Structures are given as C-alpha cells and as structure tokens.
Amino acid sequence: MKILFSPSEAKNSGGVEKIFDQNSFIFPQLFNKRVEIINSYNEFLQTASTPQLEKLFGTKKSEVIEKYRQDIFKSPLLKAIQRYEGVAYDYLSYNNLEKSSQKYIDDNVLIFSNLFGVLKANDENYQ
After folding, report:
1. What is the pLDDT of residue 127?
2. Which Pfam families match (predicted)?
3. What does the alpha-carbon distance between residue 50 and residue 18 come to, in Å, rounded to a whole number?
4. Do 69 and 127 contact (CB within 8 A), yes or no?
5. Backbone torsion region of residue 19, taken as left when φ is above 0, otherwise alpha when ψ lies between -120 and 50, otherwise beta
6. Nearest to residue 80, comparing CAs of 126, 114, 37, 20?
7. Which range marks the domain in which residue 38 is found?
8. Which DSSP state fits 23?
9. pTM (2 decimals)?
10. From residue 60, how far is each of 35, 52, 55, 96, 120 by CA, in Å?
11. DSSP code of 77?
12. Neighbours of 61 (CB within 10 A)
C-alpha cells in the first residue's frame, strides 16, 4: 500500500551538504528532466525581480523571499518527509517514530512536490 502526502508551503531548514544524483529520487529515468526543471527554477530565482518573487512565493516578507532565493544547488539535502512541515507532518511526527515505522514510511509514502515531482519519503531534496 502506498500513502500519498501533499507538500506543504513551509519547509524545514538543514540537512547534509552533498550533491544529488539520479539515485537520489524515485523514478531515476526522470533525473535529466528534473535537473532541467531545477536549473530553470534556479535561474529564475537568481534573475527575477522582487515583485516577481513576491508573486511566486505569495508573500512580501523579504526574509521569506531571501530564504528561497538562494542558489538551490548550494542548499543542504534532507529527506522529503523531514523537509516539509505542516499539520499532517506534525501529526505524523516522523522523527519520534521507531526505526521500523520510519522505514515503512520511507518505503511507502509518496509526496507530491511542485518542484521535484513525485518523491518517496526518503528521497533527499533541497530547501
């Protein structure tokens, strides 16, 4: 059984400094397309005007905009299930589960990311 989770607007910071590769995600055959999309997104972040970024992120708070304006490839990686925060993620309380429960979630939860597409819970992604 697969469990479907939506992403959340808010994301947790942190993770490990490393480069993702085609084995970092479910559906490795989509890796090149993901890189193309992420490169386009990253380029937009670096060149967009403040009003464009305010519209994209739905906020005028400069601290939020600057947090997400950083070069995505210089951000640390973190498991998708730990990256997102929100009501469902709070109730799941992944970090407080037993290792066997975490493994079940890692293997069976799919998260629909607007940027990365479908992710397994243990796929590592950027902030």
Report:
1. 63
2. H2O2_YaaD (PF03883)
3. 29
4. no
5. beta
6. 126
7. 3-125
8. G
9. 0.78
10. 28, 10, 8, 34, 32
11. B
12. 11
Query: The tokens of 120 are what?
Result: 């397994």
- DSSP code for 26: S
CA distances from 48 to 14, 31, 75, 93 (A): 25, 25, 19, 36
pLDDT at residue 101 greater than cutoff 80: yes
Per the CB < 8 A criterion, the answer to whether 57 and 68 are in contact is yes
Amino acid letter, residue 74: K
Q: Bigger pLDDT: 26 or 121?
A: 121
Determine contact, residues 88/5, Cβ cutoff 8 Å. Answer: yes
Burial of 100 (0-12, 13-18, 19+ CB in 10 A): exposed
Angle, helix 62-69 to helix 50-57, in steps of 10 degrees: 90
Listed as own residue / partner, the contacts of 86-93 with beta carbons closer than 8 Å and 24 or more positions apart are 86/8, 86/9, 86/10, 88/5, 88/6, 88/8, 89/5, 89/8
Contact assessment for residue 118 and residue 26, using Cβ atoms and an 8 Å cutoff: yes
pLDDT digit string (tens) for 40-53? 999 999 899 999 99
The dihedral through the CA atoms of 110, 99, 74, 10 has a sign that is positive
